[in-house]
UniProtKB/TrEMBL annotation:
InterPro entries recorded: Cupin_8, JmjC_dom
JmjC domain sequence ranges: 81-258
Protein name per Swiss-Prot or TrEMBL: Cupin-like domain-containing protein
UniProt xrefs under Pfam families: Cupin_8
Domain of life of the source: Bacteria
Amino acid sequence: MHSNERLPLQVDRVHAPSVEEFNRLYAEPGKPVLITGIVSEWDACSLWNSQYFNSLAGERSVPVKRMRNGAYLKARTELMKLADFLDVVNKEPVGNERVYLSERSVKDILPEIAGDYTAPPYIDSAKFAAVGYIGSHVHSQIHFHPFGKALLCQVTGRKRVKLFAPDQTPYLYQKLHFSKIEGEPVDLEKYPLYENVEYYECEVTAGEMLFFPIYWWHGVETPEFSSAVVFFWDDSRKLRWLPPTGIPLRYVPVFEIMSWIFKGKRMLKRILQSVRG
Ligand SMILES: O=C(O)CCC(=O)C(=O)O
């Protein structure tokens, strides 16, 4: 087992670009970028650590993903007391099983911390989701977002991210918007085409944010205690229905149906919550 030995490409790192610069240089051409000077201003950066989370909601049950070898697609969701979860996350890992508090709306899980950050100015839609990720020693399987753009805002710790342009899809063993490749290092006997892939690599440190354009593949390694918020917002239907070279057109209607299912589920949840008071 060994990894692709090509040299990674570099992601631009820029200081607080204006919204016009962000749109012209990154959002419109669909180019990832690391942005400094915005997340670092959040109160969250001086507040978020295990003690803080514990003091706010240590006794609360939260849904965590339990997975093996970075196999995010096969993860099971289970409820765990936040204090117990933080205990596990702060210890050196044993074996290859990991728990990850991920892909959940911050407001659903820890509404107390939602005032510690503000949505970045680059989000050009009133409808966006702010999703929390807390964990350590975890790997998020390579995937892309078929609905729109995202900004990964790193509050505590750091993440190592590999990004792959949409035209690298033939080397990534696509299964809908996920790659079948699990974890790092990549098993080249099982996934020999990966050896040809061209990729970008960067480290997102506390106070920075990384922009993921629609349809850009990315795999995320979280080597130490980390907390992050990812903002997602939808691109126009035109951009979604005209994917860049490399993304097979046949998947696009499937993604559209998935987006309606997700939206329907969210709406149902809101209705149930308001009925229950
Ligand atoms: O931080 C992570 O583990 C995954 C973040 C990510 O890939 C995403 O939000 O799409």
